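[job 0412] stage=fold_complex status=start
inputs:
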Amino acid sequence: MVQTAVIGDERAGVEPEHHEPKSFLTKYIWSQDHKVIAIQYTVTAITVGLIALVMSWMMRMQIGFPYSLGFIDQDRYYQFVTMHGMIMVIYLLTALFLGGFGNYLIPLMVGARDMVFPYVNMLSYWTYLLSVLVLVASFFVPGGPTGAGWTLYPPQAILPGTPGREWGIIMMLVSLVIFVAAFTMGGLNYVTTVLQARTRGMTMMRLPLTVWGIFVSTILGLLAFPALFVSGVMLLLDRVLLTSFFMPSIVSMGEPLGYRGGSPLLFQHLFWFFGHPEVYIVALPAFGIVSDLISTHARKNIFGYRMMVWAILAIGVLSFVVWAHHMYVSGMNPYFGFFFATTTLIIAVPTAIKVYNWVLTLWRGNIHLTVPMLFSLAFIITFVAGGMSGLFLGNVVVDVPLSDTYFVVAHFHMVMGVAPILVVFGGIYHWYPKVTGRLLSDAMGKFHFWVTFLGTFAIFFPMHYLGFVGMPRRYYDFSGINFIPDSAHTLNAFITIAALVVGAAQGVFLFNLVWSAFRGRLAGGNPWRATTLEWQTPETPPGYGNWGPRLPIVHRWAYDFSVPGADEDFLPQNHPPSRETAETAHGRPIAKGTMA
Amino acid sequence: MAHQDTMNETPAATTLTGAPPTDGWYGMVEDWASDRQAFRNVPWGKAMMWLFLLSDTFIFGCFLTSYMTVRMSTTVPWPNPSEVFALTIGGAHIPLILIAIMTFILISSSGTMAMAVNFAYRRDRARTTALMLATAALGATFVGMQAFEWTKLIVDEGVRPWANPFGAAQFGSTFFMITGFHGFHVTVGVIYLSVVALKVLRGDYERRGNYQIVEIAGLYWHFVDLVWVFIFAFFYLW
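[job 0412] stage=fold_complex status=done
writing structure:
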């Protein structure tokens, strides 16, 4: 019933040049197969993420119980703040969404046999691993890792007195520069594959939203990471060669330093020109994935597919003109604030369109409360809660008193920390059966879900209150500060307990990942009865080259659920048209010759 | 790398539905959204090179913007480039002479590169190789003269990344950083062109008759030249 094209007549042909690797080394270690590279990326990202998780525990214990559980001194505290943020944002979320999900799903979802340049793709992973190793190595250099805060603002980042000033900051910057190189190699592959290597019938407006999200997010990365690269190089030169790009004349600990005439604001502009798109680099894949999860598990077509695509593109464009809303209190020209507050609030429009469309997709759908669906619903709730506080912080007059308080911590953790990671979990529960052939345990999954979802709300929702009472972020010790009420200390203790519980619950998830790989229920090829191409592969897990001898031919968009007249409640994208089930594109049946 | 070579020989991708072509804005959107390829008959390597150059543009853009920012924000007077980059040749004091020659050489190398691409598509291996090696040689000359310029500034005039005798310290910082990064690009280009040229000579691309790699290498080379025009204008003429 599934129609396919013969390979060899078209750009499908990887085979004439590439022979299937046979040895263990070329198959699993130095592999050029996008699926193996995806798993390598995922495992590395989760491993380094666990380090960041443990660091957040140490910080929370210090804040919640400074007298009984404060294991770390203030230098360690700042180092952990820095490394926790940097690892979570860049080495975990960016790498996992693009290197992990992107690598695995793009070729499968667009109907390609691999990325367009598998060798470069392999180099991307190993370069990423190198950047991770340099980062982790900074824990073992004299002085430890940098404690400059994840934003690495100069002058403080490279001044004596900042932890890790000797070696840590150098390792951090070198690691970032390497990461940018790794990302570029991977990112060029992802974008080219989506643009130029789709299978027959797979038009752009038939791509699953997952691919759209990852695709636009990767373009953002290719244009935003250059700013991080440049600011990293310049800060490195300031630190090592004593240039004065970012360093003004400064007296440190009674001694005038050799710097003169640099502009610390320049660093902030460069950093946030990267840093704000980075938020959407993490968020857009989450938007895409959650769209597919909701549609599949509610057995209903996505509401407003074309608007979803345009919203992703609009968010991508707008994300490049909002960066200075991170800098309202930096001392930049106040008139900038007017411009950046306006653009920031405009970005809420396409974002709101997406949220409405998710809710309208659920509306009167046949909702299956599977674990991926639970995580998707939790994402919507968390994302709305986190996004709402963004409206507060986007306005200059409201931001000024709230900046550098726990309100900000609550906002960005909910909107770009917890919300995307919920999608990561949802995505892993959803695609694990394709990767391993077995389903993750449902019982452990539901336990993991409820503890994580309720627990993260218990952690981050009270922080809004802490912010309103003026509790500053990044403080090591709050004892003896008069304006902070006792209730805030109690709340801090509560948050710490919640954080320990949520962190421990991730152990159940990790156990589930390992246990289900051997003991999980056999999934079959398409356990969720999903429409997208990755579920239509001849083998599960997909073999080398993904499609066997013939590439699939696509006849419809990715959301033909519950089509009237169809035998089943879903039509795979490569399901050939019949009298009852016409070809579709962006949600509309099309007659021959009128495809728009 | 090799499998993208097959692409040039395949017929243009058509939509399954065989829709008649549409003109204007809608036609453009349709082409973009059509199946298989957004850019018809553009090989993977070429598409990827364009994307890389777009990303690299942002790197150079950030470097040059940062240079302009520090130049405007520093309180110390900026050195006069005409004086700093002057040479005394045969008793005559000529401002910017070295950089003028360097720029001429690099722009000329774009000409030889364009000719190489032309001959590559005619499958004239000898001339392609010769012109590509000429391009690489011009590029190497450029890097050599840049090394001379750096040596003169560092050894004779005492310019350092952190300070210089002429004025604002950022002059040396930005100069070494940006011209260094560009010189690195030229060096990589020289190696890249030489490798491709030797492969052309050896006949590696003859089997399929596909010489797109020459054009792709050319794209990179023209980009490096174009960036130099901006660096020249912003650094030496401002």
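[job 0412] summary: The beta strands of chain B are 87-89, 92-94.
[job 0412] exit 0
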